[in-house]
Design a protein that fits this description.
The structure is a homotetramer.
Chain A (H helix, E strand, L loop, with lengths): L9 H11 L10 E7 L2 E7 L5 E2 L3 E2 L1 H20 L6 E9 L7 E11 L3 E10 L5 E10 L5
Antiparallel strand pairs in A: 1-2, 2-6, 3-4, 5-8, 6-7, 7-8
C-alpha cells in the first residue's frame, strides 16, 4: 500500500489541473476541490443549467465527469503529480434523481498499487446524505523510470 | 425480447434530442447519428480541441458522454420516444489512447426488457478497427401506464 | 428508500437459504451469516482447500460466490423473503492476493428501490482491514402483486 | 496488440488447467474447452443439478465461474502459459433466466496489452442465440523478467 500521505493541498492541485485540463472551464468554472485527505478527497460540481436534463436533473455525463475528475484529484493529491496516469475503467451506478444543486463526490483509494490504483466515489447532493451515485474507478500508473 | 423494429430515423431522432438536451451543443454541434438499425445504432463524436487532454488524447469524460448519448439513441430509435428512460449503470473500459479524430460508437441492445434494457458499445477511431473503449449501459424503463 | 428495518435474524435466514440453495453445501458448509443489521449484513466464507488456487490464494469464483450470497443475505434480511429477486449485475474488483483463511464480506444497501436494489460489498481476511475485494451488486425485485 | 496466434490447443490447455485448478472438478468434470481461436475461445459448462437454483435456473455464481475460466482459457491459449496472470475485474450482466442445459461462453480479447488484458464474454444456452449473460474481464499480466 502506498503511504497515505497528502502530497499537496487543493490550491496547488487546482493550479496544476487548470494547466493540463484548461478546457474543463470552457463554460465557466464548475469543479472545485474541497479537501484532500489521506487516501481521500472531496470534490464539488456546482451544477448549473448546462448540466441539467429535462425535469431539472443533473445529467449522467456530468456526474461521470465529476467522478473522473475527483478520482484523479485523490490520486494526484496522495501519490504526487502523475500526469501520465490513465483511467482504465469506470463503473457507475446512478441511484437517485439528482436535483439541481451542488454535487459532492467523496472518493477514497481502495488499493494504491504500483501499477493499478482502484478508488470508489460516493456522490451526494449538498445538504443530503442520500447517495445520488456510486462509482469505482481504476487508474493505471506509468512504469517507474 | 422487444421487436427489433427501427422506430425512427436519424433526422427525426436528432430533432427530438436537440429539444430535450439543447445544452449538448453549447460549444457547437459535435454529436451526430450516423445510422439507426434494428437493435443497433452508430453515433459519431467529432472530437475537437475542447475534448482533448495533454498529448492530444480524447478525454475519458468525452467518451463516456458519447456512450451515454449513443446508448440512448439505440434505445429510442428501437423502442420509441421514451424520454423517461433513465440510465442506471455505465461500465466503461478504456482500452487504447484515443488520438484526435472522429470517434465512432456502435451500440447494440443485448437485452430489451420491459423494465431493463442492457446495451454494449464499441468505440473506434474513424478509419481504424482497433477498439478505443468498450462499454455496457443499462437503462431502466418507465412503468407502463 | 426502503425502511431499514431488520426483518429476520441469521438463524432464520440460514434456514430459508439452506432450503432454496441446498447445493451450496455440497462440499460441506462454508458460508455463515455473522450479522444482519439495518441495510447491512456480514457474511463469512470459511475458505478451505477446495477454494484455493496455486500459491494458496482464495479463488476469484469463491469470492464472487461470497458476494452473491452476502448481497442476497442483506437484501432478504432487510426486505423480507423475496425468493424471486434476481441478480442483474455484479461488478467486482480483486484488490489483493487473498491468503487462505476466513473471508469476511460486509455488504450494505446503497439504494433500496421498488424495482432495483443496489449494494456494495467489501471483503477482508479475518484479522486484517486491508481490502481483498470490492464489489457492487444489483438485484431486480419481482413486480408487486 | 499481442500477436493473435493460437499458442496451444484445447487438450494441452485442459491438461495444464487440470493441474493448477484440480478442485474445479471436485464434483465431477463440468467445464470443457470447445475451441481456441485467434484472440477467442469457446468454453462449455455442462450444468447439472449442483448448478441449479429453485425453478431449474443455472446459478449466477456458476455463470461467473464459467466467465473466469473461459477468460483464462482465451488468455492462456493466445498468450501462452501465464500461470501468474491475475484477474483484476469482472463485470457481469445477467440478461435472461438460464434454463438447465449446456452454457456456452464465447470470449474474445478486446485489448491484449503487456500489463492488462481486457476480454468480453457472451454466454448462450446451447441451441439458442439469446444472450444469457454478458461479461467483461480484466487480467493483470506479471511483469516481464
Amino acid at each position: 500500500m502506498v503511504e497515505p500521505a497528502v502530497k499537496m493541498g487543493p490550491e496547488e492541485l487546482t493550479g496544476f489541473l487548470d494547466k493540463i485540463f484548461p478546457q474543463m472551464h470552457a463554460l465557466g468554472r464548475v469543479f472545485f476541490i474541497d479537501e484532500i485527505l489521506p487516501n481521500k478527497a472531496v470534490v464539488r460540481l456546482k451544477a448549473n443549467d448546462s448540466h441539467l436534463r429535462p425535469g431539472g436533473t443533473v445529467s449522467g455525463p456530468s456526474l461521470m465527469t465529476l467522478v473522473d475528475y475527483a478520482a484523479y484529484v485523490v490520486l494526484l493529491g496522495n501519490m504526487g503529480l502523475q500526469a501520465l496516469a490513465v483511467t482504465t475503467n469506470i463503473n457507475i451506478n446512478f441511484l437517485r434523481k439528482a436535483n439541481a444543486g451542488d454535487m459532492i463526490a467523496t472518493c477514497r483509494i481502495l488499493k494504491g498499487g504500483k501499477r493499478l490504483v482502484v478508488m470508489d466515489c460516493e456522490i451526494v447532493r449538498e445538504g443530503s446524505d442520500e447517495l445520488i451515485a456510486h462509482a469505482t474507478a481504476t487508474y493505471s500508473m506509468p512504469p517507474a523510470k
